[in-house]
Amino acid sequence: MASAISLKGLVGLVTGGASGLGRAVAERLIQQGSRVVLCDLPTSQGNEVARTLGENCVFAPTDVTSEGDVDNTLNLTKEKFGQLDAVVNCAGIGVAFKVYNFKKDLPHSYEDFKRVLMVNTAGTFNVIRLAVGLMGKNQPNNDGHRGVVVNTASVAAFDGQMGQVAYSASKGAIVGMTLPLARDLASQGIRCMTIAPGLYDTPLLAGLPEKVRKYLADTVPFPSRLGYPEEYAQLVQAIIENPMLNGEVILALKPESTVRKSFIKEQVFAYLSRQKVAYGNFEVVDFENTELQKHVKSIALCDTDLKLRERKSIDLQDSNLKVYVFHLLDDGPSDEDLGDCDNCSVAQMWSLPNSAFCGIWEHLVFDEEIKGRLLSYAMTTLLFSDQKVNCNIISWNRVILLHGPPGTGKTSLCKALAQKICIQMSDRYSYGYLIELNSHGLFSKWFSESGKLVVKMFEKIEEIILDNDALVFVLMDEVESLTAARKSSLNGNEPSDAIRVVNALLTKIDHIKKYPNVMILTTSNITGAIDLAFVDRADIKQYIGLPSPKAIFQIYHSCITELMRTGIISPVQLMLDIRALEITSYAENDATRLSLQLLRISEESYGLSGRTLRKMPFMAHAMFIRASTVTLEDTPFLTWMISVLLSFYTAFFHLTFS
């Protein structure tokens, strides 16, 4: 597998490098061990910036529209560093005029229009056409790679506003020449990419009034701020390092697209209709449709299990498809404490939908239709609440209890369920929260205080629930820690602290069930230890057992597929899924041999938890493979998985009977 392009020792030329995005890129490259030729106008702060960045940075006074200046810069590059590996074009200007000012009876300045196009478009092209001559003299690596050009366009190229005629035209031209440049230079091993950033905090925006800057920041849904130049520089680094990126335009603010959801739904329906038929879940990240490519990160078809069990294909034109449009948040959990107590964090709160939980739902494998059943329950709960069904006549407590052996996916299922419901209810609730309680943090070293901590925690949860735009999930993992059976805790006539905790918890559960936007998700490995009063409050008590051989096969199949996707197993081999094997009646031939071998390993693995099963490919690689890549054909990777399985059973036997 080809390695990434290393920034260490790389020579980069950055235009507009004295400030803004260009300076951030230069700083980033220097930090990663590159050498940089920093280009900007003689009147800029380029000399001072280069001096600050150290001996690996040299300033070249450059007007990008001047052939002589660019030639001099390239000569300096060759003299100082001997080569040129990357060009990052950040030099640019902008003006803000309508095409005609009817109040002043004044047309847009023709000179200003030409000046913007000259600097932004012609200047970019001028640097590229001369720089690739030097770049083409580099010795190619094993892939034939000699260098990369990264241009800076703007979202204005696609979504220009009033007063941006000149600027949008200049940036649109950069977008338009990206693919032809990539095609022209591909034979020489030189890549060409363009970034179209949104609203970034650069000198171009620094001159705007603070009210205008704040207004622009507020137009970004999340995070509600201007982008940092350092974030742009991170993307430049990723492009340089990834040799597979070529001829594309990346919108730096795609996750914050403000396009109407209804428009995206229409585009997605049209896209799926053109695909006509599906044979199971799938995810698409590349689209021919330019609007989808502009605004959508991926399209995933999910929950097709029922059709597949009936061995039916899915007609995407006639099926009753439901499309949900959502933004994944990248922020991690925030710790929640109770302020005046001496305990550690008592909970972690996640914003939903969150990228940390992306893909969990799709990769959880169960023998029964557990996921669909839980989802149906949750949606019914929210429906009854929205319709204001009298809970004194028809009772439900908003509590789910998942129980079973360790490692079977109970906690993961709770998190995935919360994410799934939040996405499907996005038209009803603007956002969601998952509050993950820390059972140990709710126990005090002071006698009788633990019950008070539980009450305080639920009072904080209630404050969050009062936000009617939020859908709130409370996750209590290993709930037996909080709901131990009270009859086993009795000590004479004095109730123990554990009894107070159970009493407080049951009281608060009864209290918050009146709110329509909350659901309590709980798990347990020791069901017999849970107080019966809590068990009785659970609307659904779902057993999550160990996976069957067919479910194990699906788990292993997803692991092998992931190793192929990442190049650890190479080349990609045909691995049929369980449905395809059933269609072939498990007949062994060249096409089914590897899949049937994996099925036999799955049968030998019966009795292991999902958590253990997903470790097997990792352990096989760690224990038996000394290379970064492995093939399925020439090396017995699947056989090594059997060896790991045997070693696991041996270790388990010694632990159990020693």
**Main sheet?**
7 strands, parallel
Q: In angstroms, what is the radius of gyration?
A: 30 Å
Q: Give the CATH topology of the largest domain.
A: Rossmann fold
CATH superfamily of the largest domain: NAD(P)-binding Rossmann-like Domain
Distance between the termini: 45 Å
Q: Which stretches of 5+ consecutive residues score pLDDT under 50?
A: none
In spatial order, strands of the major sheet run: 3-2-1-4-7-8-9
Number of strands: 20
How would you explain this protein's 3D organization?
The strands form five sheets. A seven-stranded parallel beta sheet has the order 3-2-1-4-7-8-9, with helices on both faces. A seven-stranded mixed beta sheet has the order 14-15-17-18-19-16-20, with helices on both faces. The longest helix is centred in the N-terminal third of the chain and has 26 residues, at 110-135. It is α/β, with parallel strands linked by helices. The two termini are 45 Å apart. Strand 1, helix 1 and strand 2 form a beta-alpha-beta unit. The model has no long low-confidence stretch (mean pLDDT 82). The chain is globular and about 85 Å long. It folds into four domains: 11-252, Rossmann fold, CATH 3.40.50.720; 261-315, no CATH class; 334-543, P-loop containing nucleotide triphosphate hydrolases (Rossmann fold, 3-Layer(aba) Sandwich), CATH 3.40.50.300; 549-657, no CATH class. Helix 1 (20-31) crosses helix 9 and helix 19 crosses helix 21 (593-604). Residues 396-548 form the AAA+ ATPase domain. One of its GO terms (molecular function) is (3S)-3-hydroxyacyl-CoA dehydrogenase (NAD+) activity. The chain crosses the membrane at residues 637-657. Pfam families: AAA, AAA_lid_TRIP13_C, adh_short, TRIP13_N. Belongs to the short-chain dehydrogenases/reductases (SDR) family.
